[in-house]
Write a structure and sequence with these properties.
By secondary structure, the chain is an alpha/beta fold. The chain is built from four helices and eight strands.
Length: 173
């Protein structure tokens, strides 16, 4: 089985309206009108610039649902990672996440520059920019073996704020 990419993820959420608003307002997702008739407890969203039918499905389970214990008391998914095109976009996303009190961390993984956020139900996600293949060097490749502090200003100075990430890695050259 040759996997080309992740097409979509589906999350169980407590409050559908709250979650839809978060993913729209903070991350720029837009609703896709594909909820089956008579099924009010679901929403489907597409990320900006995505060519997927939808990128995120949200299914409401109600306010009584407990928090996910994944990684603490149960096995389960740790996070999803969404890729952005530029470091400028990563920086703008960091600002939106911080304003929504949803930014929980950032890191430099050598070849990837990452933000970590949490949605209203505490589900974690990653927003990532990948160094394009033609700019990869030994320092970046060696950096994959550690988790460092992300210095976005330094990375923008090194690679440029508008340099398209992932080219030759996750995006065809």
């Amino acid at each position: 089985m040759g996997i080309h990419r992740l097409n979509h993820a589906v999350l169980f959420v407590r409050d559908l309206g709250r979650s839809v608003a978060f993913y729209q307002d903070v991350l720029g997702f837009r609703p896709v009108p594909m909820t089956p008739d008579g099924f009010a407890g679901a929403a489907f969203l597409q990320a900006p610039g995505s060519t997927n039918d939808h990128d995120l499905g949200l299914f409401e389970v109600g306010a009584g649902a407990g928090p996910s214990g994944a990684g603490r008391t149960t096995v389960g998914l740790y996070h999803l990672a969404w890729e952005v095109d530029t470091l400028d976009e990563l920086e703008a996303t960091a600002a939106r996440l911080a304003a929504a009190d949803a930014l929980v961390g950032s890191s430099d993984h050598g070849t990837t520059k990452s933000l970590y956020g949490r949605d209203p139900d505490g589900l974690e996600f990653e927003i990532v920019w990948l160094i394009p293949a033609d700019l990869l060097d030994e320092r970046a490749i060696e950096g994959r073996k550690r988790i460092g502090r992300l210095d976005l200003a330094r990375e923008k100075q090194r690679y440029g704020g508008q340099t398209r990430g992932g080219v030759g890695v996750s995006v065809p050259a």
